[in-house]
C-alpha cells in the first residue's frame, strides 16, 4: 500500500470516523515508515548541528588531557585561553578530572541522578501537555465530568512535577558546592605547600590569587553545574517534543522549527562579542579594585601620617572607573545581543510556530465537520501550542549554547591560569634547588642575585655557622643581607654553589615584619603550632606565661582577656610587643638555630640584651641581621657585607 500523507486521511474522513482513522494510522505500515522518516530527519538535523559545533570548537582533533604546566608551554599566548576552542577543551578536561574524580564519586552519582530526574521532568511535561489538550477538548464539548477528571489529573501530576523540580534545583546547587569544594581543596593543596608557597613569592606572572581562589572558582563551579542541566534537558526535550510534534503536524513542522533555529544560531554566532574575554577581564578588574582597598586598610596609619588620602582616593577611584567602564561596555554588548536573542529565539519562533500550528488547521480539518471536529481541533491546537512552546524554549537554549560556553571559558581561563602557575613554579625552577640538609648552616661559593637575575647582590659567599657559633651579618642597606636568609629558607634560588641547612624543626626564622594569624592569644605565642600541638608536646599555659615573662609580656594575658581571646592582633599590639611576641615563638620552639632579621629594632637596648641572653641560655645558635653594633657582644663572628658584592668575616664579641 502506498504511503498516504496525514492530511489526506483528514480530508477523506467524516467527523464520526476521524478518531478511528487516526488510531488506525498509528499501526499502519505507511505511518510506521513515516515515523522512521521523521526520526531520521530529526537525528540528521541534530547531528548536523552538533557536527558544526564540534568543528567550530576544534573537537575533531584527538584530545589528550595534559597537565597545566605542559599546556602553559604549548599554548603560551594568553588570548588563546579566552576562546572556545581546542585549548578550552583541554582546560575543561583537566578541571573535570578534578571535580569528578571517578565514576563512583559522589559527584558522578549526583550527575547520574540529575540525568534521571531531567528525563522524568521531560516525560512529565509531555504528559501535562496531553492533559491540557484533553481538558480543552472536554471544555469545548461541555463534558463536565471529563473536564473535572482532567483538572484532577493535572493537580495530581503537579505533585511529582513539583518534587522533581525541587530535586533538580537542589542537585544543581549541591553539585556547584561540591565542585567548589573539590577545586578549592585542590588549589589549597597546590598553593599552600612547602615548596610551591615559597616559590610563588617569586612568581609575579599571576595576579589576584585570592580573587581566583575565593571568587573565580565559585563562579566557575556554578557555571559548570548549571551548564549540564541547561544543555542536556533541552537536547532531550528537542528529541521527544519533535517526535510528539511530528505525530500531530507531520515532519514538515518539525523541520521548519529546526531550520529556523539553525539559521538563528548562525546569525547569533556571527554577531556574538567575545564574552569570554569580557568575563575574564571583569574578574581581573574587580580583583584589582579589591586589592587596592585591602592595601589601603593594611597601611591606613602610614597613609594618615603622610596625609596621603587624596592621592589614595584618586588611585582607588581610577581603579573603579576602569572597572565601571568595562562593565558598562559589557552591559551594552549584552543588551544588544539580548535584543537579537529575544527577536530570533522568542518572537521569531512564535511566528514560525503559528505557521506550524496552522498546518493541520488549514490543511482541510476545519471543513465544517460538526461539534466533534471542533473539539478535536481545539485539543490539537492546545497540545501543539504547548509542544511548540516547550520545543521553542529547548531549541532556543541549544542555540544559545555557544554563548554559555564563552562565559564559561572566561572563568575557566582564570582558574586554569592559577593551577598552571603554581605547577610551573616547581616545574621551571626545580633544577635551581641547591639547598641540602645538614647539621650546620653553610654557604659554599654561593652567588646571590634578585629573583629576576637583574642585580647581583653577593658573589661567591662562603661561611659556616656551627652549633654555638653565634654570627651577626651587618652592612649597608641594599647590600643583600636579608637575601641570605631568603636563599637559606628556599624562598630565593641560588645561582651557584651549595647551601647546607638544618631540618625544618631545627631552624627558625623571624622576619622583619611580624605576622599574626587569626587565632587566640595562645596561638600567637606558639605559631605555627596550634593549641592541640602544644598539648601534645606537654606545654601548659603556665609554661607559656613563663615565656611571656621572659619578654616582659606577662601582663598581656590579663589585659586581653585570657589565653582564648581573639582579636585583630596586628592592630592590638604595639610595635615593641609585636617583636617580643615573635621572639616568644623562638623561646617556645627552642630550635637549634634561630635566624633574626632585624626583629628587635622597636625594642629598647636593655630589653634587647635580655632577649639575646635568654636565647643563648636555652641553647639556640643565633644568626642575626642588624645595623646595631652593640649586638656584636652577643655573637662570636661578624660577616660584614659591602656595596661591591663582597664581604669579609672576623671574630667579635665575648660570648
Detailed description of the structure:
It is a single chain. With 655 residues, the chain is of the alpha/beta class. The protein has 2 domains: 6-429, Up-down Bundle (ABC transporter transmembrane region fold); 435-516 and 573-651, P-loop containing nucleotide triphosphate hydrolases (Rossmann fold). It is 66% helix and 9% strand. It has 23 helices and 10 strands. It has helices at 6-12, 18-27, 29-57, 68-74, 86-99, 106-141, 144-191, 194-199, 209-249, 251-271, 275-298, 300-306, 309-365, 371-399, 401-429, 481-488, 521-526, 531-536, 541-550, 555-560, 569-572, 575-589, 605-617; strands at 435-437, 441-449, 456-465, 471-474, 496-501, 507-510, 593-597, 621-625, 637-641, 647-651. It has a 6-stranded mixed beta sheet with strand order 6-7-8-4-9-10, sandwiched between helices. A 4-stranded mixed beta sheet has the order 1-5-2-3, with helices on one face. The radius of gyration is 36 Å and the shape is elongated. The model is unreliable at 1-81 and 365-371 (pLDDT under 50).
Strand-residue proportion: 5-15%
CATH class descriptor of the largest domain: Mainly Alpha
Strand order of the largest sheet: 6-7-8-4-9-10
Radius of gyration: 36 Å
Number of domains: 2
General form: elongated
How would a textbook summarize the main sheet?
6 strands, mixed
Mean pLDDT: 75
Uncertain runs: 1-81, 365-371
CATH architecture descriptor text of the largest domain: Up-down Bundle
Helical content class = 55-70%
